[in-house]
Amino acid sequence: MKFVDEFRDPEIINKTAEEIRRLVDPGRHYRFMEVCGGHTHAIYRFGLKDVLPANIELIHGPGCPVCVLPMGRIDDGLTLAKNPDVVFTAFGDMMRVPGVQGSPLEHKARGMDVRIVYSPADALKLAKANPDKHVMFFAIGFETTAPSTALTLMRARAEGVGNFSVFCNHVTIIPAIRAILDSPDMRLDAFIGPGHVSTVIGCRPYAWIAANEHKPIVVSGFEPLDMLQSIVMLLRQLRNGEAKVENQYKRVVPWEGNRAALQAMNEVFQLRPYFEWRGLGFISQSALRIRDSYAEFDAEQRFNVPGVRVTDPKAAQCGEVLKGVLKPAQCKLFGRECTPEHPVGALMVSSEGSCAAYYNYEHRKAMANSLAWPA
Amino acid sequence: MAVATDSTIPKIRFREPQIEMAHGAGGIASRRLVEGLFAPLLFSSAHPSLNDAAALEIGGVRLAMTTDSFVVKPLRFPGGSIGELAINGTVNDLAVSGARPEAIVASFVLEAGLPTETLEAEVRAMSRAAQEARVAIVGGDTKVVEHGKADGMYISTTGIGSCLPGLRVDAATVRPGDKVLLSGPIGDHGITILLARGDLDIEADLRSDTRSVFPLIEAMTREAGPGIRWMRDPTRGGVATSLNELARDCSLGIHIFEDEIPVRDSVRGACELLGLDPLHIANEGQFLAVVAAEYADAAYNALCQAAGGEEAVVLGELHEQPAGSVLVTTRYGGSRIIDMLVGDPLPRIC
Questions:
Q1: Which residues of B touch A371 (CB under 8 A)?
Q2: pTM of structure
Q3: What is the C-alpha to C-alpha distance for residues A186 and B300, in angstroms, rounded to an integer?
Q4: Cβ-nearest to B335 among A91, A341, A365
Q5: Is A113 on the interface with B (CB under 8 A)?
Q6: ipTM of the predicted structure?
C-alpha cells in the first residue's frame, strides 16, 4: 500500500536501527517523550522497543485527548443527553470512557440515544435528518480535530440549523508540554513532536522548547521508519550539543501549519482562562471554548450544565503515568482493578492511552519474558 | 438430568449487573458470560467443550450439532445478505468441527411491516446458499414481533453434521512446533458491513467473503487428515480472538508472522484510516487450522490447489512461550502481543 509499505520496509528499518546503535553513547541513559498518543500506539503496535537499544527510554506524553479529559466532563455531557429528545454523538474513541454512571456505550445499552460519528460534519448531517431531535456533538481532541469542529459550526450557522450543538472539550498541546516541563519530577532529554497536531499548528510553536528549555524536538510521522528516523535526528542533535526544532514528517507537515484551519479555529473558538486536565490539574489557557457569536451552538451556554467535578479514584495514578513519572505497570491498579475491559482511568481505554497500549501489546509479553524465553 | 446435590451445585461466576453489547461481540465478555453463567447451569458435563459445535455419538454414529443467530444491519450488503450468512455461518461451524454439514432447521423472527419482497429475497438467498453448501433445510419456525423490535428480521439456524472419519479436532492435541494455516485474506466481511452501514464516507471495492468453507476443509482432510489438530472460523472478534482462545485452551504461545497476514489493500486502507486492526475484524468465509508440522506442507498444498483456497498461507506456529498468548512478530525484529477483542471494534479518530 502506497505511503505505508515504504515506511515499514524491514531492510531500511534495520539500517536505521543500526544507525541508532551507532549514535548512542553507551554510557548515557536517554529519556525521550513522545507527546502524541498516536506515537504511543505505534511504538507498541510495531514493537519498536525491541528494535531500540536498552538505554533509550520512551516516555509517553499527554497527547491522548481521551486520556486527559476529566471524568466530570463526560458526566456533564451525558447528563444533557438524558433528555429523550437529545442525541449524544461522539467519536468511537469516547464510547468506552467511563463516567461516574458508566460510559456512553453503557448509557446506550440502557436506552440513551448515543451514536458514533466519524466527523462533526456527520453529526450535523444527523441533525438535519432529524429535525425533531437535538443533536449534540461531544467534541474532543487537540488542534488535530478542532478545525473540523470549527468548520462544522460555521456551516451550521450559515445553514441556520437550529437543533445542533457542540459540547466543546478541545484542548491545545503547547500548554500541556509546558506543564510537563514545569513539573519538578520530570527529567527529559528530548521530544518526539506530535505529527497530526503539527499539520495544523506547524513547527514554529515549538521554538521555545529548543530556545528556552534547550531540548531538541523532532516532529515525527507514525510509521515505524518515521519514528526511528526521528530518533536518529534527536540523537544527532544531542551528540552535537544542539537543541532545535526539526521536521521529519515533511511529507505531511508544513513548517507554517495550515492557515485556513487556524483561521477557522480563530473564528469559532477562544481560549478558556483555564481548564482541568486529568492527571495534570488546572492548566491556564490550555483549552478552547466556543465564542459568544456562536453561543446558540454551544451546549454549555445553551443548556444547564451541572459542572460535575469528580476526583479520580485515589489509588489510580493516572497523573503520574500521564506525566511519565511512572510506567503503566507501576500503577497500583494496573492489570488488577484496571484493565481495558474494566478501565478505571481513561489511559486504559483509548488504544492511544499508554496503559491500554502497554496492556494490549506488552504486558503479557513482559510476563512471559520473565519466565525462561526459549531460544 | 441428575438433580444437583451439594457437591455438584454449579458455580456461577458471572456477576455483572446487566447485559451490555460487549457480551454478544464474541470477545472476552462473551466468553465470561458463557463460561460463567450458561455452562455451569446448562451443560451436563463438568468440563464442557466450548467449541463451535457439540460432538455427539448416537447409535455409534459420530455427529456434530450447532446453532447460531444472525442479527445484521444492513440486511443486504455487497457480496451477501443475512440469508446467506444464516446458512454459511452454521455450515462453517460444523465444517470446522470436522463434520460434513447434513441438515439445517431455521427460525425466523420477523418484524411486523417487513416487506414480503425483502423476506422473499432472503429466503431465496438461503435456498441458494444451502444448495451451494449441499445441505438440506429440513424444518423451521416463524414468529412475528411488533414493528420497531427486530431490525427487519432475525434468523436463527441449527445444523447437524456427520463427522469426517479419521479427523479429531481438539485444542488439547495441539503441540509446540505445529503450524497455523489460514485459508485466505481477512477482514473482508467486517469492513464490508462497516462501510455498507453508510455512516462513513469511504468507498471501497469490497465484498463480504461469506461462503461455505467445507470444500476446503474436505480437500485438506483428504491429504492431511491425521495431522489436523484444531480448526476455527474466525467470525466476530476476528483471527486474534480465535487464536487467543486456542492459546488459552492449549496453554501454548502462538507466534504469527506479521508479513504473512493476508489482507486486501482496501481492507488495510480502511483499517489504517479508522485505527482498527485487521486481526480483530470479522470474517465469514475463512478458517484457521493447526496442523502437525509433518503434515503442514500437504495441508497447505491441498488448500492452495482447491478452488477458493489459492490465497491460503502458513500464518504462524506454536511455541511453549508466551503461554496462553498470541505474539505477532515482524521481519525487522519487533513483536507485540495481540489480545482478544474487547467489546465491538470502535473506530479511532483523534
A1: 321, 323
A2: 0.83
A3: 54
A4: A365
A5: no
A6: 0.73
